[in-house]
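lol forgot to send this yesterday, sorry. struct tokens for the thing we talked abt
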């Protein structure tokens, strides 16, 4: 019940107030923490008598020689749920330190209750995280109804319509980090994730149904309630706002660009697994095809997703036939042509917008597109040719990344 860390915290706090030596003993009478470090781990016979009787025990200087491991002072029981779980002792003349006894005991019991409450909350939080992990990975066991009831016992309402938005922690865990907290040294990867998750949960205590969970070691999932009566475009704005708030929390701890993936809504609680998988796929698609987008909806990347399902050999054969010399032995000049073509497609075949985005003259864009036509035989201004070129570009990019 009382561990050495908690015992040390109690000793430090009470000694700072009293200016007297304080000892904390466990329920076996062993000294866990003391202002006198030479007494750590030794048996305190006075504490043993307190544990047996449940009452305070005083030792005067003339009694010290008759008892093992004690000095003059007063020892009092530390109670938790009507049980003696430890002993707190104050060194000094009992007539002098007696007046501090109840104060010190009350402080110790209060700190113990607070520590127990934190532990209980932490255990519940870990139980919920474990449940979410199983929920999103489909580890429901043989009885899905029992799994559903397990969530109910944890206080989760799985009937609330939700979608899953996720962030990938891979970009975070490989970067050294110092978090502004009680720690001053560089923290481990696990500490980074725990601190981030803790702060995110504190920050996003939203309406009923909004949940946050660490999934495995590489992602955090956000269970976002959706209202099917509200137009999807409005809900997209809400999700964008949430993503900005999350980025703000993370950026206070580390400078990194986060990618957010958003899955689709699926009826029934089992659909949360599909929504999560789509959210993680959306992150992958964003990194591959649209790295400038930090928030990517799976629905927006359906075409890209379908293209990734094409066998690798077929993808390679296609882009080599379409792009040919444009990507063979690529050099800085060819890279300019490829970049121009990619931006041209993202700007919906608009030459002026492409030029503005690339900070070049409109004539330069037209010149480069003409060079691409000479190399590939395809005119990017014509719809059918543009489709072939864009698919080839997407295949090529996907093969390079994967």
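and heres what i got for the seq, position by position
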């Amino acid at each position: 019940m009382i561990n050495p860390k908690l015992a040390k915290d109690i000793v430090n706090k009470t000694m700072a107030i009293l200016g007297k030596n304080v000892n904390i003993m466990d329920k076996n009478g062993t000294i866990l923490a003391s202002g006198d470090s030479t007494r750590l781990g030794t048996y305190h016979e006075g504490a043993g008598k307190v544990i047996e009787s449940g009452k305070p025990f005083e030792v005067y200087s003339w009694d010290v020689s008759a008892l093992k491991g004690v000095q003059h002072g007063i020892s009092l029981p530390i109670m938790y749920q009507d049980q003696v779980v430890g002993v707190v002792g104050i060194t000094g003349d009992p007539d002098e330190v007696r007046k501090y006894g109840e104060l010190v005991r009350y402080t110790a019991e209060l700190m113990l209750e607070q520590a127990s409450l934190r532990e209980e909350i932490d255990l519940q939080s870990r139980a919920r995280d474990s449940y979410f992990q199983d929920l999103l990975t489909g580890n429901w066991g043989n009885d899905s109804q029992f799994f559903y009831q397990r969530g109910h016992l944890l206080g989760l309402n799985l009937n609330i319509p939700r979608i899953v938005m996720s962030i990938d922690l891979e970009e975070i865990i490989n970067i050294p980090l110092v978090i502004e907290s009680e720690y001053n040294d560089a923290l481990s990867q696990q500490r980074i994730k725990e601190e981030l998750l803790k702060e995110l949960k504190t920050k996003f205590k939203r309406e009923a149904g909004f949940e946050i969970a660490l999934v495995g070691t590489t992602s955090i999932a956000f269970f976002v309630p959706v209202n099917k009566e509200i137009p999807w475009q409005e809900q997209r704005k809400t999700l964008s706002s949430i993503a900005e708030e999350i980025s703000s929390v993370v950026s206070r701890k580390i400078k990194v660009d986060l990618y957010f993936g958003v899955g689709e809504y699926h009826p029934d609680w089992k659909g949360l697994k599909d929504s999560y998988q789509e959210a993680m796929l959306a992150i992958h698609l964003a990194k591959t095809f649209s790295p400038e987008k930090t928030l990517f909806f799976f629905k927006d990347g359906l075409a890209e997703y379908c293209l990734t399902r094409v066998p690798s050999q077929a993808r390679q054969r296609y882009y080599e036939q379409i792009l040919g010399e444009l990507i063979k032995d690529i050099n800085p000049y060819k890279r300019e042509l490829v970049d121009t073509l990619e931006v041209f497609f993202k700007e919906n075949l608009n030459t002026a917008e492409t030029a503005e985005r690339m900070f070049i003259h409109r004539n330069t864009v037209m010149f480069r597109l003409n060079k691409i036509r000479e190399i590939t035989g395809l005119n990017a201004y014509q719809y059918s040719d543009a489709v072939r070129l864009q698919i080839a570009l997407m295949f090529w990019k996907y093969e390079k990344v994967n």
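Residues 310-401 form a domain with the Arc Repressor Mutant, subunit A fold (CATH 1.10.10.2840). anyway ping me if u want another try
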